[in-house]
Amino acid sequence: MPKTISIGGATYDLFIRTGEDLIHECSGDKSIALPLGSKIKVKDVIETCGGGANNSSVGLSRLGCSASFCGVIGSDQWGDKLIENFKKENVNTDCATIVEDEVTSFSVILSASGGERCILYTPGTNVHLHDANFNKEAISKMDWVYLNHIQEGSCVIQDDIIEMLAKEVPPRFTWNPGGCQIDEGLDAPNNKTLLSHTDLLLLNEEEAIAFTKSQSKEEALKILIDIGAKNVCITHGKEGTLASDGEKTYHCPCLKGIEVIDTTGAGDAFGTGVTWGLISGKSLSEALKAGTINAASVVSKIGAQAGLLTDIEMTQRLESDELSVDVQPF
């Protein structure tokens, strides 16, 4: 059983399902409008667990990996529920840090029809992940490390991660860069070094273009492969995923006929599925299918984790779903 660890945030999510009458469109942009002074009846209130590293660790555990979480959680009611969920999902928390008198990261998600949502959040204890509580010795013993979005102040752990990845027999590495890393761009020394050790890079189209300062996702893909990332995936919502392993370019469409209930956690589910595929020795083409199938399952339910598939479910769906990946020379 491969040993994996997810580094980053854990958040307790409160979903509030609203009606379509609160959605307004102006100049092509949609928004959820809440008139001041009004009292609005909502359809549902649902409590769930979320956060990038939380989602990927739970996802990898369900897919049959030995999964661990590395992040910071408060000793409050939200933190207690996150820990309870980790235990239920068989995620190891030995590398998690519990802090007193701090509020665990918490989100209020206004969820409308068709998966549209607006997230109100506080990063809470997620900002306290730094080198002082980062157990690089334990993490270096993993088979695969998954670095999710981290807060700006947490970027100090990058030096430890680089040191770990530079070892003679390093763990393999999935990286989903956060906003502060994307803003720094490819010229930042740590970003350039991390990319050279990255087995799987995950970005959406906007992030990829901003990170590379390019004009298109196709140009961004080439730049990221040329700089050293072994496998790059650039997602673009309903248009599917553009990816490359440096030899071929792949376009994986989204699954058709999926009723989108909520898109929260879709990116994490995709990244988890692709990572599992590569861990399992599958080609990038098959791994893309696994990520797409996992994401489709997640968006069909409320919350980031309810739809995450098990390894048995994933294997069955890979065999039965007619998902065709277009493959071209790089």
| Strand residue percentage | 15-25%
Rg over CA atoms, rounded to whole Å, is 19 Å
User: How is the biggest beta sheet arranged?
Assistant: 9 strands, mixed
N-to-C SSE series? EEEEEHEEHEEEHEHEHHEHHEEEHHHE
CATH top level is Alpha Beta
Give, in spatial order, the strands making up the sheet with the most strands.
6-1-11-12-13-14-15-16-17
CATH-level-4 superfamily name: Ribokinase
Structural description of this entry:
With 330 residues, this protein is an alpha/beta fold. Helix 7 packs across helix 8 and helix 9 runs antiparallel to helix 10. The chain is globular, with a radius of gyration of 19 Å.
Spell out the blueprint of helices and strands:
Layout: E1 3-7, E2 11-17, E3 23-26, E4 29-32, E5 44-50, H1 52-62, E6 66-70, E7 72-74, H2 77-88, E8 97-99, E9 106-111, E10 117-122, H3 136-139, E11 144-147, H4 158-165, E12 172-175, H5 179-184, H6 189-196, E13 200-204, H7 205-212, H8 217-227, E14 232-235, E15 241-244, E16 248-252, H9 266-279, H10 284-299, H11 311-320, E17 326-329
Parallel strand pairs: 1-6, 1-11, 2-9, 7-8, 11-12, 12-13, 13-14
Antiparallel strand pairs: 2-5, 3-4, 9-10, 14-15, 15-16, 16-17
Helix pairs in contact: 1-9, 7-8, 9-10
